[in-house]
Amino acid sequence: MKHPLPARPEHLCVLRLSALGDVCNLVPTIRALQRQWPDVRITWIIGKGEYSLLSGLSGVEFLVYDKATGLAGMREIWHTLADTRFDALLHMQQALRASALSLGLKANVRIGYDKARTKDWQHWFTHRQLAPHPRAHVLDSFMDFARLMGVDDTRLEWNLPIPETAIEEAQQLTGEHPYLLMSPCANPRLRNFRNWSAEGYAAVIEHAWTQHGLRTVLSGGNSPQEREMGTRILSLAASGAVVDAIGATSLKGLLALIDRARAVVAPDSGPVHMANALHTPTVGLFATTNPERAAPYCWRDYVVNRYPQAVRSYMHKSLDGITWGQRVRHPDAMSLIGADDVIERLDALLTDYPAPSAMEPSNEA
């Protein structure tokens, strides 16, 4: 017998710990649930960095789980929620760590992914599974939870909060000159080759500066890899064309930078999905991950897509011969993207989405 779904839930739990791009893609599901049931209480169990990005999201109570705390951190969450029973637990994190955490939560029904999409045996930890949705984008997979709950209005809405302090942080870096935001590095993970070349980025920077009067603001964390990439790009770029903000902003400050940018250029990483959530025009660079599954959702027409070529060249297969969303784990795959490919997409984007008159570009130093 299936566990029944609540007709009018009073308290829902969302379990999604990571990552930055994924939590941005999840927010429209939160908004859809809130539109369906304006009085619903939503508790979101989230990762530490992800909370820094989304803190202040209206109508959501956050509980932060820092994975570095391990079982002790889980026990703290369980203790906090010891007297809470949710109408439904939306188990949106396909990882054993998250499933282990879910065991200490009380819920009338636990909802997870269908068997075709599930990973790490998540279906063992849930009562109800989503309807099959082959070849779904990540954002649509999240929205499937709302659909299963009976939500019909699935229009996209984010309304991410950006505090005034973050806006001031961004303005101190950029002034009033229009700019392109470039986040050159994806999160470094084992055999996750998503970074493009410093030479390619430098060519795009030169084009943005000479043809569009746009400075480029480099963003990123403070890891050695990101610092090294930034230093290399700066050495290749013209004087005055680049503002180096790598390691210089908070996550809210990065949101503010993205919100004020004319456009964003980045590989498959958090910033392209942050830009998507803020309606900032975005060029995503994709070769090792499938953009049909993971591109910035509203800007898929402006993606530089070399994933099919990478699958053929480095996996020696066709798209039909691999699983949906399978990564190309080869360090040379991103080299299939040429600077001219990115410049062409950037030009199209800036033409289709011209700057407001108050932000018309100039070439002042």
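That was protein one. Protein two is written in the same sequence-then-structure order:
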Amino acid sequence: MDYHKLFCNIPKPFAFLDLDQLNENIRTVKSICRNKAVRIASKSLRCVPVIQYLLQTGSPFQGIMCYTASEALFLSKNGLDDLLVAYPVWDEAMIHSVACAVKEGKTIILMVDCDEHVERIASIAHREKVVLPVCLDMDLSVSFPMLHFGVYRSPLSTLDAFLQVAKTIHESRSVRLDGVMGYEAQVAGVGEQTPYQPLKNLLIRLLKKHSVRRCSRIRKEWIDALSQEGLTPRFINGGGTGSLSETAKEETVTEITVGSAFYSPTLFDHYRNLHYQPAAGFALEITRKPRSDVYTCTGGGYIASGAAGSDRLPRPFLPKGASLVKMEGAGEVQTPVRLKSKLHLGDPIFFRHAKAGELCEHFNELIVVSNGAIVDRFPTYRGEGACFL
């Protein structure tokens, strides 16, 4: 598709979504996930029409993983349901709002990983005379001497601690155990094919191989232990885009969370076994030419979250051969790009964001293209006046 010609009359900067590439990624996810349900990670999309589009393609997509309770309530008001809030909510007013939504028949599941979470949610639910569904978050990180391989989230790193919180949930009349979640971030969120780092890549591959076996074993042992206590959660959630093929093989897991696969940002270029198409990106306008091989664009400083590094920068991908200037990177008001191709002032340079959904935090809409034509415009969360974090 000739993006330059297609977008010639669109004011820059703008963000776009290639529906043909998105559909290819949908097919890839469906082919990998086997018989598992797929819960859509909204943080990687941040656009209601895109979420609705995925759900409308049918099985195996069902349910949404949200990143805040306020986002879950927003999506609920937009007609979406089965909303799992991936991170604990402590704010009393927000839990109260969730309780009111559940009383009205909505399914919003809150995350817990300690007795304090359970007790706070239960006390509010008791006042509202409603039983709130909760999901128990297990820690699947791996700790070695001098190395923590994973993320710091749930404190439930032992079976005893896990069962203790499960017991607290079971003994309450105002909450019920609806699901269990275990996110193997060290497998799903870490690439093992970073250019020019062969020793680091080898180490990561070994650590990931160990983690995959360990996560599968722990997940089965802990869920079996729950069953022995008479507790049978509705769903067992695991994985992410980077671990989809491995997590899909686990019999214990009933659903896998997927988000980044649909847009395919640059951070997922460094995985050996991932083959997704770049479906979303943004365009900047060339407004200066300070050197014969340097074109300077207006804007572009859309840096991804996480540990600061060059991998968090957006990357120019069209025209081919374009690269950032290392000393400047992507700037708040201008971004210089090295490129030998002959371009002109006013021409676009197309970029991909390092992380999926964060692209939508910078634009009010995604211009949707398919079969060589602009077919729609999807408002992002920002375009709908929504900001949750």
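Residues 293 and 340 are 5 Å apart (CA to CA). Keep this in mind for the problem set.
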